[in-house]
Amino acid sequence: MYILVIILCKIISFLSKLIGRGSSLPGVIAYKLNSNIFSKFKMPKYVIAVTGSSGKTSTSYMIYKVLKNNGLKVYHNSKGSNLLGGVLTLIINSSNIFGKINADALVIEVDERFTQMIFEKIKPTHIVLLNITRDQPPRQGNYKSVYKIIKDSINKEATLIVNADDPIVTTLSKEFDNEKVYFGICKCKDSFDDLESFALDMVYCPKCNTKLKYNYVSFSNLGDYYCPKCDFKRPNLDFEITSVTDEITINDKYNIKVKYDMLYLYYNLLASFTCCSLFIASEHVVKELNDISFVNDRYNKILFDNRNVEIINGKNENAISYNQAMNYIRNKKGIKTIVFGFEYISKRYPYQDVSWLYDIDFEFITDVDKFICVGPWKNDLATRLSLFLPEDKIITVDNYDNLNQILKTTKGSIYAVLNMGSEILFKKGIGE
Amino acid sequence: MKLTIAYLYYDLLNLCGENGNIKILKSILKDKVDIKYLTIGDKKEFEKYDLVYIGHGINENVKLALSDLKKYKNDIKKYIEDNKFFISTGSSYEMFGKRIDDVEALNIFDYSSKTFEKNEVFEVNAFIDDISSTVVGIINRTSSNDNKKNNFLSINEGVKYKNFIGTYLLGPLLIRNPEFLENLIKELTKNPDYKLENKFMIEAYNDTLKRKEYKKYRN
Fold first, then answer.
1. pTM of the predicted model, to two decimals?
2. Which of A340, A380, A341 lies closest to B178, judged by CA?
3. ipTM here
4. Which residue of B has its CA nearest to A210?
5. pLDDT in tens, A214-232
6. For residue B121, what are the domain limits?
7. Domain count, chain B
8. Are residues A358 and B19, on separate chains, in Cβ contact within 8 Å?
C-alpha cells in the first residue's frame, strides 16, 4: 500500500514541479494517506538536521553544497520547506518506490517548532543547533517554548553540533550526554565589550541565576560568557573563528573569503564548516565554501543616481536578525539615507504586533540625513524612530511609487532595510 | 521638579519590546526625569520613585524577579496606598497576586495565576474609565489569572487599584495608546494642559483602528 502512496506522491511532485508549485504538497498528501509512512523508508547513513531561530536555510544549503561537491550523494529540502510536509516530500523524492533512499546523506532544514514531530521520524545522526532567540512571538510563544520543544526531540544517537556562543543552545546541549561539537567566534572587529541590546533572552546563569559576565559579545547575548559565581561558561571550542579580516580564519588555518561583514554570516559559515569537517577533510571543506557562489537573498547592491544602494532584507519579528542589519549600517562611514519598508508583519498570522520594533537598536545608527518609512506600517516605523529623532528627519510614504523623486532630495549612501517581497517594489520605485 | 522612574528587572522582564515604554517617557520628559534601571540584587527605594514600571517576561523569569521583589513587599504596599504610579505589564503583574502556580506571591491583590504550555494570543481593543478612546494592544501569554474585580479594561482584563495598573497587554503599551499616555503624563507632571505632539504616534494609533485584522479580532 505504501508503495502506491510513494508512487502517487512522486507523480504529484513531478506535476507540481511542472507548474512551479509548492514543494511540500506531496508530503502533506502522503502523510494524510498514511501517517505511518515515515517508518517505511530506509534512511541513508547520515541524516543531518539543521535547526534554530535563524540561519537554517543558508547553513543547510552550504552543508548540502559542500558535501555534494565532494562526491557524496546528498539530498536537501529546498528553501522554506522545513515543516513535516516539506521534509516528507524530500524523503519521497530521494527514495525509490520501495522506500530505499539511495544516498549517502540527507541534509534537512527543520523548523524549530517542528523538531519534536520530525526528529522522531527521521532519527537524525547529526543535529546542528544554530541558536534560539525571540522570534515571531505570536506563533512561538517565547524562546523557552522553543527550547522545550527541541529538548524533547533530541535522540541520544545524534551528534550535536552546537553554537557555543549562544548560552541558550549551549544550556540545552548540556542536558544531554550525546557526543557534542562546539563552535564559536573569537573577539574580533565586529564584537562588543559588553551587552548592548535590551532584547536579551537569557543573560542569567541557568544553574545558579547569577547574571552572566562576558569577555566580549558578538551580538545580542551571544559571545564569550561565564558565570561569576559557578562553573557555567562557554564550553571549549572545537571549531573557532580565530581571526576576522576581509576573510575569516578557522582554527588558525582555514581561510574563507566573506562577501560582506555581518556576524550572522560568519556563524552560518562556521556552522557549515564544523558540520562538514565531521565528514570530509577540512581542506576540502574550506575550498568548497570559498567556491560556493552563495545566492544570498538577504543582501543586494545596486546603483541609483550615482549613489550606492545596499539592500538588506531584515526578518520582521526577529529582532536579533534585524539588529544585524542595523549593526551593518552602523559600521558604515559617511552620511546615510535609510529606507525602511514592509508590507506585512507576518504572512503566518494576522496580529498587529509591533512590539519587536522596540527590540531593535535603531538608536545606534548615526550620520543619518533622512529615514524614509514606506508602506502600510509607515507610521508605526516612524513612531519608533521619533523616540530619538526630530520629526523633520523622518519621511513617511504610502508606497514606493515616488521614491525616485524623494531619494533625490536626500544625501549620502542609501541603505534599504526591506522585507521579503518589498525588494521588488523598492527596485521598481527607484526605476531599476 | 525632577521625576524618578524605576524600570525594574529590565534584563529579565523585557520579552516584547517593553523597554519602549521607558524610551517614550524619556523622550517626552527629557531632563525632567531620572530613570533608574534596577534588577535582581539592586537596592530598591520605593519612597523615591514617582513611577515604577515592570514588563513582560517568561514565567521562569517572573518567579525569579518575584523572589527579589518579596523583600520589598511592605514598601510596595505603602507605595501603592500612597497613590503613586505603578505599571506592570504582561506576566509581571502576576507577582502582585496571591500565588503563581505553587509559588507564594506578594499577596497584594486577590488573584492566583497558573502557567500553561501553549501560548494564547489576543488582539485587544477595550475601554478604561479615565479616557474616552479605545485601548489597543496585544496579549501573548503562557499563563493567566483568575482576577474578577478592579479590572483595568472593560473586557474584564487586568487590575486597577488607585494608581496601580496591571495588565496582560504587552510590549510598548504607552506608545500604542496616545491618549492613555497623555493622561499619564498629565498626572505624573501635574500639568493638566499637557498635550502629546507626536503626530506619527497618533496616526499609527488611527491605522491600528482601521486595519481589518483589528476588526476581525476585536473583543
1. 0.91
2. A380
3. 0.94
4. B40
5. 999 998 899 999 999 999 9
6. 3-217
7. 1
8. yes
